[in-house]
Amino acid sequence: MGIPSDAADPLYLQLADRLAGAIRTGALGAGDRLPSVRQCAREQSLSVSTVLQAYRHLEDGRVIEARPRSGYFVAAPQRRLLPEPEPSTPPADSLAVDIATLAERVMQAAADPTLISFGAACPAADFFPEERVRRALSQATLRHRAVLCQYPQVPGDEQLRRAIARRALAFGCTLDPRDIVLTSGTTESVGLCLQTVTRPGDTVALESPTSFGFLQVLQALHLRALEIPTHPRHGLSVDALELALRTQPVRALLAVPTLSNPLGASMPLAERRRLAQLLARHQVPLIEDAIYNDLAERDEHRRAVKGFDADGLVMLCSSFSKTVAPGLRVGWVDAGRYTPQLRRLKAALSGGHSTVTEIAMADLLTQPGYEPQLRRMRQAIARRVDDARRQIADSFPRGTRITDPPGGIMLWLELPAAVDSLALYKACLDERICIAPGTMFSATDRYRHCIRLSVGGPGDEAQSRALRRIGQIACAMAREGLALAA
Ligand SMILES: Cc1ncc(COP(=O)(O)O)c(C=O)c1O
Fold it and tell me: Which residue among 261, 294, 315, 324 has the greatest number of ligand 1 atoms within 8 angstroms of its CB, and so is best to mutate?
């Protein structure tokens, strides 16, 4: 389980760690029933709510499972179906970025409703609380109609900024609502941060592979990309970054410490702390994209690096595109010590965001249903990702490696070297299936034999068939490649 536990941890984490330890050592085996919540509370002299929180924590980590009307049981161990990819080893020098055309083509295909899409990093519509969003929007327009005829101001609606500051407590951050600037999404937040702390020609460090959206922004702002070795499970290598900071003129780090895109990697808590300390020593700002934090299965992965930032160097960006509604376009940023400059830049470049949408979002975040909705979403997504990993293990070529992310909807596959992901992308498109080829995720020429599959789609028979079909095409390409090489 790897839950770091010491006396400073909350009681529920200490209990969860003790139970996880008993499962690890075999004292509790797969299928064993845990004591009821009340019995455990009595035995451990804890409150019922603390025990319930510990059980839920273990359930979210898929260590135990709740069975209706029967209680909690030790879950069967997750079978590692295929090996995971090796940590990445990008070149040590920075590069100018030129990926925009391929990324645009793939994103256009990913948005085509007539295709079966594994291309866009967006959960299927059935994961979103569409009806609640619709009601919140219509109530906001009814009750606050005056704001429709007024220009919105930067930094945006105060209720929403306060709601965001309250939610950021789950990220381990104490934010001042006055420092939060509302934006039209993480994309805008990240763009504003980069423009605040860099000038054209500067070098920005990133994970490798990284979000193609980041590469697009870097290209648009004429910034150079320095890709840092990244582990498929533990994320950015702090050691490799330390070396880069000593040898390269890095102006900023742009990273996704929780459920990175496309690897789905999540940095361990101790590494987050080390990262904040390293950046403070070098006085280099971190643009931290926390868009997936609420989708992480474990509490410790929801904690932001910003929570360890004593210097105001971390610029924390996020939005509600992956949890509430991507179409609302509501995001935010707390830019730490750079807040005044960023706020000015936002006002100059785009002005305020849509007040009525912000009021609706504040309402949605403060309704009691939001937290249970997130838990249901995380559990449903985990089931879908497990199914997809099993189908991939059954139908993709021998030698395929795959990530096992602790949350989120993305899988990164390393295929046998003979499979060219661009050729695979084109062959799949001919069959009305969209995938994201690996080369989109780097400014270097790497990841030619990798693909990203976003498996948070409807999970129906058509999707399963399409997934198997991608595997068959990849198998044929791998065989052809071997025959040519022979
Ligand atoms: C890491 C990352 N950041 C930002 C975005 C876009 O976020 P938003 O919709 O808030 O602009 C995405 C979407 O795929 C993403 O994966």
Answer: 261
Residue with tokens 């987050």: 272
DSSP state of 357: H
φ, ψ dihedrals at 348, nearest 5° = -75, -40
Across the range 241-269, mean pLDDT stands at: 97
Using alpha carbons, select from 373, 382, 217, 229 the residue that is nearest to residue 296: 382
Nearest partner of 220 among 247, 190, 249, 248, judged by Cα = 190
Ligand 1 mean position, distance from CA 257 (Å): 14
- CA-nearest of 358, 315, 304 to 186 is 315
Is the bond leading into 155 cis (omega within 30 degrees of zero)? Answer: yes
- Predicted model pTM: 0.89
pLDDT band of 4, cuts 50, 70, 90: very low
CA distance 83 to 85: 7
Range with the poorest average pLDDT among 142-146, 227-231, 332-336 = 142-146
Nearest to 231 by CA among 267, 269, 276: 267
pLDDT computed for residue 176 by the predictor? 97
Pick from 188, 131, 146: nearest CA to 359: 146
Ligand 1, from 117, 184, 192, 211: best to mutate by most atoms within 8 Å of Cβ?
Answer: 211
| CA torsion through residues 126, 128, 132, 138, sign | negative
Q: Residue holding tokens 């750079």?
A: 338
**How far is the C-alpha of 338 from the C-alpha of 423, rounded, in Å?**
44
**Cα–Cα nearest to 317, from 196, 408, 438, 153:** 196
The CB-side HSE value for 208 (13 A sphere, CA atoms) comes to 28
Is the CB of 334 within 6 Å of ligand 1? Answer: no
172 torsion bin: left (phi>0), alpha (psi -120 to 50), beta (else)? left
- Ligand 1 centroid from CA 429, angstroms: 24
* pLDDT at position 2 over 60: no
336 Cα: distance to centroid of ligand 1 (angstroms): 21
Reply yes or no on whether the pLDDT at 3 is more than 50.
no
Burial of 113 (0-12, 13-18, 19+ CB in 10 A): exposed
CB 189 within 8 A of CB 156: no
52 C-alpha vs ligand 1 centroid, how far in Å?
33
CA of 317 to the centre of ligand 1 (A): 10
Would you give the end-to-end CA distance of the chain in angstroms? Answer: 45
Q: Which atom of ligand 1 is nearest to the CA of 188?
A: 11
Q: Are strands 95-96 and 71-74 parallel, antiparallel or unpaired?
A: unpaired
Cβ count within 10 A of residue 75: 16
What letter represents residue 60's amino acid?
D
pLDDT in tens, 364-418: 999 888 889 999 999 999 999 999 999 999 999 999 999 999 999 999 999 999 9
